[in-house]
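Write out this protein's structure.
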Amino acid sequence: MLRAKVLLVGPCESGKSVLANFVSESTEGICSYSPTQGVRILEYERPNLSGNNKGAGCRFELWDCSGDQKFETCWPALMKDSHGVIIIFNPELPSHLKEIEMWYSCFVQQQPLLDSQCLLVAHHKPGSAGDTENLSLAYPLNKLKLIHSNLEEDPEDVRMEFIKYFRSIITMINESRDREEMSIIS
């Protein structure tokens, strides 16, 4: 079975754990807010996610990383061997819009990962206005795939966007593996 490691990063209280639980169909700590200490790893299996018969599916490791910068010394260890990064933020907090530039720089540019391996998620908390139209992001964030998540109003749309992202990660892993095999053969 294919394995993929995806980091969920972003500012404190942006909804990383909520989305990790939702995507992995976990009910752990679903009731109240509790800051993640360091990292929390959820395993999540998707059979036939790639849509072809190549392999028996994929096991995703969702690394729900603390938004507290006191854990910054641990970040290089968290990043090791990751295949993708999901940057989650609350679009209603101006401080989050500034902070996600730092998360992008640290977790995507310094690895280095391709922009296609990164997903930006503007997470709208329950009861928020949820303005999805007027979000302007600075370069280089404006070239990344951005989705809006509102688990109250459109949970299945959110799930489908995550599945599309996971499919792209699987495709990238398979292509990388195929190139490696071809280099060995030739």
